[in-house]
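To: structure subgroup
Subject: Chain for Friday's discussion

All,

I'm putting the inputs and outputs inline so they're searchable in the archive.
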Amino acid sequence: MQDVKPLTERQKQVLDFINSFLSEKGISPSLKEIASFLNTNNLSSAQYFINELEDKGYLRKNANKARGIMPIPKKYSIPLLGFIAAGEPIEPIESPDEISIPPSMEIDIKYPHYALQVKGDSMIDMGILDGDIVIIKHQLTASSGETVVAVTENGATLKIFKKENDQVFLEPRNKEYQTIYPQRLDIRGKFVGLIRN
């Protein structure tokens, strides 16, 4: 599973300063304020630390926004609910396992998420491989073209949801598999990321 790289003591101090500044003032510090914390007038020193913290997965920068430095929340856990087919549909296996989400993975924690382990290779052309852990945002609707967890009369599967002329269908991303035209289809979530061991 991917994880963040450890920080040097000075990088940790800069990150703590950014978090404290944000908590106290409600905005991120400027490069000048970070440089002042570092006891220097050299803005490139502050930029160096920002780049290092971003590269290690602790910060995100919004280049289009003044004070656009945002700490990435510490990792948190979501339920690993079992397996999802990326091939022929199978029933998901419920289990009480939890999986840690790396802080560098950008998912909106305001919404419930869950994880499933992929079984099969019908999505390999999209970079989703057998054994990958897919992160799913729980939702009951989808737009055409989104990758979803769908339950059909044959079980649950991970596919591209398509809707054309009132016809809904599920497309694989491997030419060895055929498009599924289900009689019944329930959306259970949208694919938002993956973790590869």
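Points worth raising on Friday:
The domain at 76-195 is CATH 2.10.109.10 (Umud Fragment, subunit A).
DSSP finds three helices and ten strands in the chain.

D.
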